[in-house]
Write a structure and sequence with these properties.
CATH topology: Yope Regulator, Chain: A
CATH class: Alpha Beta
Distance between the termini: 25 Å
Oligomer: single chain
Order of helices and strands: HEEHEEEEHEEH
Number of domains: 1
Shape: globular
Largest sheet: 6 strands, antiparallel
CATH architecture: 2-Layer Sandwich
Length: 175
């Protein structure tokens, strides 16, 4: 198989990992109760993690930006509230054209999916740029303890895959 065929296959598979669903305001149960966290309670929880957390204006679904501190590293994330799940996202690289990245780098991204699951790489085209993100979807009702565990897990996946995604932003993918 030619390098261009591998590159196209790898890029297609990376693109296939994205997805969305309908949103709702109250998707997170309060620990030990049958209540769910409201947007305000979710925001208060994230403010407890990061005093500089903020609501993203005009976001649909409701979304928040915050920074999670893992050891000495600050990891900027967003949390979006959908109907019955929460999406955690972390932008890891912006590139001019993902189709021009080396096939071997795209294969490393694909290979990273298994050990970091349920976190996965995602690729979004915004304007004339391709944005690589790590995303983590939590599909079940959850409390603050499970949300904290998911944020911790996601931050570990960001750190684990840094040797791969840090090469994405370089012009030749070999940085």
């Amino acid at each position: 198989m030619a390098a261009s065929d591998i590159r196209n296959l790898a890029l297609a598979l990376v693109l296939a990992f994205g997805g969305t669903s309908a949103f709702a305001q109250d998707a997170v149960p309060v620990p030990g109760t049958k209540q769910v966290l409201t947007q305000d309670q979710m925001f208060a929880y994230l403010k407890g993690l990061d005093p500089n957390a903020k609501r993203l204006p005009d976001s649909n679904p409701p979304a928040f930006a915050f920074t999670f501190r893992r050891s000495e590293v600050a990891i900027p994330m967003t949390a979006s509230l959908y109907e019955s799940n929460i999406w955690l996202n972390c932008e890891v690289a912006v590139v001019e054209d993902a189709e021009k990245l080396p096939a071997d780098l795209l294969l490393k991204i694909l290979r990273a999916h298994t050990p970091i699951g349920p976190t996965f790489f995602r690729l979004d085209r915004v304007g004339n740029k391709d944005i690589f993100r790590l995303s983590h979807r939590i599909d079940r009702p959850l409390g603050a303890d499970r949300l904290a565990a998911a944020i911790q897990e996601m931050s570990g996946d960001v750190a684990t895959t840094a040797p791969i995604w840090s090469k994405l932003a370089s012009k030749d993918g070999k940085k």
